[in-house]
Amino acid sequence: MSSVAVLTQESFNEHRSGLVAEQAGGDSAGDEEAPAYKDAFPPLPEKAASPEGTQEPVNAWTSKIRPLKSSVITQVFHVPLEERKYKDINQFGEGDQAKVCVDIMHKTGAHLELSMAKDQGLSIMVSGKLDAVMKARKEIVSRLQTQASATVAIPKEHHRFVIGKNGEKLQELELKTATKIQIPRPDDPSNHIKISGTKEGLEKAKHEILLISAEQDKRAVERVNIDKVFHPFITGAYNKLVADMMQETGARINVPPPSVNKTEIVITGEKEQVALAVAMIKKIYEGKKNATTIAVEVKKSQHKYVIGPKGNTLQEILEKTGVSVEIPPPDSNSETVILRGEPDRLGQALTEVYAKANSYTVSSVVAPSWLHRFIIGKKGQNLAKITQQMPKVHIEFTEGEDKITLEGPTKDMQMVQSQMEAIVTDLVSRMDYMEISVDPRFHRHLIGKGGANINRIKDLHKVSVRIPPDNEKSHLIRIEGDPQGVQEASKELLELASRMENERTKDLIIEQRFHRAIIGQKGEKIKDVRDKFPEVIINFPDPAAKSDIVQLRGPRNEVEKCSKFMAKMVADMVENGFFLSVPIFKQFHKNIIGKGGANIKKIREETNTRIDLPAENSNSEMIVITGKKENCEAARIRILSIQKELANITEMEVSIPSKLHNSLIGSKGRFVRSIMEECGGVHIHFPTEGSGIDTVTIRGPAEEVEKAKKQLLSLAQDKQTKSHTAELKAKPEYHKFLIGKGGGNIRKVRDSTGARIIFPTLDDEDQELITVVGTEEAVREAQKELEELIKSLDNVVEDVMNVDPKHHRYFVARRGQVLRDIADEYGGVMVSFPRSGANSDKVTLKGAKDCVEAAKKRMLEIIEDLDAQVTMECVIPQKFHRSIMGPKGSRIQGITRDHNVQIKFPERVDESEEAAVQENGEANGEMVEEPAAPVDPTAPKKCDVIVLSGRKERCEAAVEALKALVPVTTEVEVPFELHRYIIGQKGSGIRKMMDEFEVNIQVPAPELQSDIISITGLANHLDRAKEGLLERVKELTAEQEDRSLRSFKLTITVDPKYHPKIIGRKGAKITNIRTEHDVNIQFPDKNDDNQDQITITGYEHKATAARDAIQAIVDELEEMISEDITLDARVHARIIGARGKGIRKIMDEFKVDLRFPQPGAADPNQVFVTGRPELVDEAIDHLLNLEEEYMADVNENESKMTYMKPTGDRGASSMDEGGRERGSSKGFVVREAPWQTGSEKAPDMSSSEDFPSFGAPVAATNKASPWGPKRF
């Protein structure tokens, strides 16, 4: 850390005046004693530590200074002149060299400062963190210094040591030497390493690489091949022998493990060490290679006991007897074990092998698999008691098997087996299990959040409960444990499940547009609601589903509270955003939207509203308008007017007292919706509740509007006089049966009683509720009839009918689709067929009596159809089959459904396979036997025959329908040059036509140069497609003619000097001409021969107009004159102004062009003014006036400068503040200075030798200087 002295202007003046203020009485500056040199310039502290017991003197430099270690370092690099890459001395600090330095600073984060030495070498000071400085150094050397290259050859096997682990050594070398080192790849036989960098770096890198190689030369590698069977003798028991050898020799010995089938032993280290180790290994091998071997048979299952855990038993035998035991590999079937060693030790080793083989026994204990967990105990506590006593016994449980396998020492097995049998007997006597059936949808609620519910039941009743995972979809829950606990747990679980079945689920109708607002950002708002009602589960529909139903589920009271709370939230939102729904017939929605959304966009912008249309696949006709009330009304009128223009829509107003409106609408619009559905989907609009308006609007086709009006007035009259409503409930599956086919059943009830019966829609909350509306008597009678029908449906009966087994498959095929349709149509009748393989024709029907009878009748009709089935063939060439089927088989499905027939297409046969059968009777090179009878050439091919099954008349109709689907081909002549336009970019044009007309259009290949385009498709589509194609040809022909007209070219000759004026500033003028006349204007390129030719392309009349416009500009320019005036160069900058603002203002004001001289011009005062004569004169007058004004300021400033004291004047006399003259200054005087005590003298400030100029040559001198030895 350094101390810094701050020198202010005042203190500097004091030093210059001798540090003594001039006294009024003329006191001399020398009266005060001058400071000593050591006090004024205290020396820096010495580096060496003070001797012990002595104290360092405190001075100005050492007081209060604490040493700090900085993380920033500074290094200086020198690049000699001959090695500099950029040697242009005139561009120092500029050009490529400066750019390189800036780039290095950005890359490395280090700070660079460049300076030029006297010898024109480059000194670069780099500051920053160590790694940044090192990286910067490498960049400097490679980019600012000329590069040399050299190669160094070292043995190929030493290369990896130069690279180091993960290339770390190589990177370190490159950073250290600031070079680039290239090492040949492993597959390259070359041993030359290439180094590039500076000369100094090359030498360093070469030296380091040779050092690494020399170090590796001292090492050796030896490989010894010894049979695998002798490796145990070399390693010794537990690898002790090989470890001793490595310690004794210092070499590294690598013996392959027993599992690796290699014989090579690798020894590495110093040459002498390796040689000694090799000798020792060979000595052991020589001693053991004639060892005796015996082979014994040991059961394969006992081999693992001989080997022991991790081969420890083999090592133990080797240690005890010195005999190696060789066990066959596990994948071998051999049971032969070989013992190798000294003859006198083989007997002992054999005894050990048999003892180890027979030391273990395997047995099993019978135990039900469900008891296994209890035998093991929590965290294996029960087993731990046994295994702690007998640690060598292994107990294995197999899932799904009613047994436990025991394996261990023979002496321990009997005791363990008896203990296990006792545990099993005890558990069987006091444990029980039970399986209960619970609907899988309640399983996760039984488990509870984080398993809270199920864990409580387990802990309370000391039982184990297994609930099947969701993917199993099983109803069975298994409870195991104490009999009483099992009973209590099952009871509690069943109660919980029963309670959940009675749990309330409520569907809250909240418009989807409010869902996001209720949920809140990142779900914050809905989280607050859920925290407020933790027992209620709130489910919002998927945004893509476009559903308004929000489902609440939980305890009844909590669900009601949550429902009210959320309804209040929605009410608050509704208050803050008015909206209304406009019913528009679905077919007119596309007209409301308009082409590219033009209509809807215009309405939105003009009325400032948001308009939401239902999705295309939705059945809704409502268009929702949101915004201010008056804006919504305006948008509604606009939308309705579009519909009125497009269709014969009548709008009628009916006056009904407003007090009856709610009762006519009904709960959630049920009554009014039923009228709208009956009357062909008319729209009935009631005024806003509480408005007091009696007018109800009915909109739709004239006949339907009249019908709806009558029904509405009739209902209003009934409501006003004798209206009565009743409600009754029936299971949703009965509704279809009550309504009847085509509404037949319910119409009978309506006609006989005169009451109106309304069934719930899919959106209604209560799906069982049926509402009856009418007079009291009519309602009573209708209710009575309906209740009788429902009662009969509730009266479940079982009936049996006989169905021939050959028809069973038809009913159960496609996962029982036919049976499901029957169940849906006839009040949920259950139909049971006998199992597959059972030779029975009895079919059971279960359900309401009437439903069973109706279903039975329907099944008999189906059987009659099946019995009357015929099989018919329809021959259509195979190439048309795919077209007949339609996309995803849609066409064939339609025929099957409409005609109630089965259609089977033949297997597809490749034409190339068929052609492979040659006339000589060979097929694919093999002889084929000749057929017994000649094949009829007129007979249809198998692959062309489509088989139909069903009633004869239906099959015939289906055959006609199939033949109508066979595509036909027609040809259209279209000029070849238009083909590419018909195809369009990447085939988009032709694809669009094919999709629009549902045909296939085949355009001939370009090389054929044909005009014929083929159209293939259904006969009724071809005419439309042909018309469409010819219409497209007309359009393209018209476009072609238009292109021809647009390609008219016109050339105008204009002097190149006028080109910039025609183009204008930033191309403004020429762009304006191009846009105004819709033409393309091309100016000549720099290399063109005709530099005065301007080409105009476009329609002829527009090109002519553009030419006239350019000629008008040229005529105007030719009228202009150019004059030069003399303006003093000293005022040019002021006239031009900041960023040319002043000169632009003059040019715009006077409509002239001004040209000032370039730096270095012959006459720096000459300015050119170009423009119309009268404007040029005015501009010149203005410029001369400005010159006169600015020159007055210039002259005034110059006159002031003559009276100012030059900054370099250092005269002997000066004036004090009062204007009095001071005496001459002695300067800053010190005592006991070095030049006073010795022979030296003070430096002469005027001497160029003591204070040389930068770059000036200095004569060599041996004279010592007070400033220290000279370094230049």
TrEMBL record:
The keyword Repeat applies. Signal peptide: none annotated. Residues 772-799 form a coiled coil. One of its GO terms (molecular function) is mRNA binding. Residues 15-57, 909-936, 1201-1272 are annotated as: Disordered. GO terms for biological process: cholesterol metabolic process; lipid transport. PROSITE patterns: KH_TYPE_1. Keywords: Acetylation, Cholesterol metabolism, Coiled coil, Cytoplasm, HDL, Lipid metabolism, Lipid transport, Nucleus, Phosphoprotein, Repeat, RNA-binding, Steroid metabolism, Sterol metabolism, Transport. The keyword Cell inner membrane does not apply. It is found in: Cytoplasm; Nucleus. InterPro entries: KH_dom, KH_dom_type_1, KH_dom_type_1_sf, KH_Vigilin_N. GO terms for cellular component: cytoplasm; high-density lipoprotein particle; nucleus. Residues 146-214, 218-286, 290-358, 359-425, 430-498, 502-571, 576-644, 648-717, 722-791, 795-864, 868-967, 968-1034, 1046-1115, 1119-1188 form the K Homology domain. Appears to play a role in cell sterol metabolism. It may function to protect cells from over-accumulation of cholesterol. This is Vigilin. It comes from Oncorhynchus mykiss (Rainbow trout).
